[in-house]
């Protein structure tokens, strides 16, 4: 049974998640309604998803689950706007995707009848390959958790974690696609430098990342084990791995995750 889904804010991440959920049959476009401060954003969302747009009161009145999607710095204003709309009856489940903003911050800013789940989806949700995590606020129920799992899990992997780990999730999978795109581009650049056409290099690079990731997920083997299976003694791959280690590839990735966690903590006022 499709859920009645509302959105407050309908930017790129929200659009990717909703398009993926529609494709997975978890929601019907006719039962999705979104609002945004920007008319252009509302129009783009409607064109991409086939869903409806409305004002905030319309979203609050018709939705059982609401994705709260403004930028983190815009959350206080969004919560104030929600409080300004007269409420009656049971409130909706609010699933926030705002990086760094704690569940308690949202609960403190919302009317009492709303329950809160904090989540970190990512843009590959659009192609059914999302990696998300979520945590429950103080008043969220197991039924609410099931709704979040259904929505986020329909477009990839969804894990329930303690809130203290949510910023770490942001560092790994929330921001992670950007790191991978950078690495795909860099690997393709190496192929172009060695003589491949740009189109061929990008296709080979992207497919290699896809294949390697699939191997990790489907075999269940540790990445280090799979890496060693590619690296023959005194061969080409071990020479490349030595170069990557010398240039700090592993350290750079670890520091990237740490930078995200630090920034998310700053956004959350820590």
UniProtKB/TrEMBL annotation:
Residue numbers binding NADP(+): 8-13, 36
Cross-referenced Pfam families: F420_oxidored, P5CR_dimer
Superkingdom in the source lineage: Bacteria
Key words of the record: Amino-acid biosynthesis, Cytoplasm, NADP, Oxidoreductase, Proline biosynthesis
EC number: 1.5.1.2
GO terms, biological process: L-proline biosynthetic process
Pathway noted in the entry: Amino-acid biosynthesis; L-proline biosynthesis; L-proline from L-glutamate 5-semialdehyde: step 1/1
Primary location group: cytoplasm
Any one GO molecular-function label of the UniProt entry: pyrroline-5-carboxylate reductase activity
Cellular component, GO annotation: cytoplasm
Catalytic activity field: L-proline + NAD(+) = (S)-1-pyrroline-5-carboxylate + NADH + 2 H(+); L-proline + NADP(+) = (S)-1-pyrroline-5-carboxylate + NADPH + 2 H(+)
InterPro entries found in the cross-reference section: 6-PGluconate_DH-like_C_sf (IPR008927), NAD(P)-bd_dom_sf (IPR036291), P5C_Rdtase_cat_N (IPR028939), P5CR-like_CS (IPR053790), P5CR_dimer (IPR029036), Pyrroline-COOH_reductase (IPR000304)
Cellular localization per UniProt: Cytoplasm
Similarity-based family: Belongs to the pyrroline-5-carboxylate reductase family.
NCBIfam families the UniProt entry points to: proC (TIGR00112)
Known role: Catalyzes the reduction of 1-pyrroline-5-carboxylate (PCA) to L-proline.
Record's protein name: Pyrroline-5-carboxylate reductase
Gene that encodes the chain: proC
């Amino acid at each position: 049974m499709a859920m009645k889904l509302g959105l407050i804010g309908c930017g790129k991440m929200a659009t990717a998640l909703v398009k993926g959920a529609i494709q997975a049959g978890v929601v019907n476009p006719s039962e999705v309604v979104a609002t945004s401060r920007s008319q252009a954003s509302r129009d783009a969302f409607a064109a991409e998803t086939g869903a409806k747009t409305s004002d905030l009161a319309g979203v609050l009145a018709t939705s059982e689950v609401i994705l709260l999607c403004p930028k983190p710095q815009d959350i206080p204003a969004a919560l104030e706007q929600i409080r300004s709309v007269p409420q009656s009856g049971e409130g909706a489940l609010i699933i926030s995707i705002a990086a760094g903003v704690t569940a308690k911050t949202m609960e403190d800013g919302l009317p009492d009848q709303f329950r809160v789940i904090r989540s970190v989806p990512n843009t590959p949700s659009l192609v059914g390959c999302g990696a998300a995590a979520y945590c429950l606020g103080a008043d969220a129920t197991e039924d609410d958790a099931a709704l979040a799992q259904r929505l986020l899990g329909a477009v990839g992997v969804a894990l329930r974690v303690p809130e203290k780990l949510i910023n770490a999730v942001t560092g790994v999978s929330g921001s992670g696609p950007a790191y991978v795109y950078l690495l795909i581009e860099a690997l393709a650049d190496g192929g172009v430098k060695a003589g491949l056409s740009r189109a061929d290099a990008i296709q080979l690079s992207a497919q290699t990342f896809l294949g390697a990731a699939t191997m990790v997920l489907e075999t269940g083997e540790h990445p280090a084990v799979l890496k060693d299976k590619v690296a023959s003694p005194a061969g080409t791959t071990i020479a490349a791995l030595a170069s990557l280690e010398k240039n700090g590839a592993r350290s750079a990735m670890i520091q990237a995750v740490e930078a995200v966690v630090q920034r998310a903590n700053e956004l959350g006022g820590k």
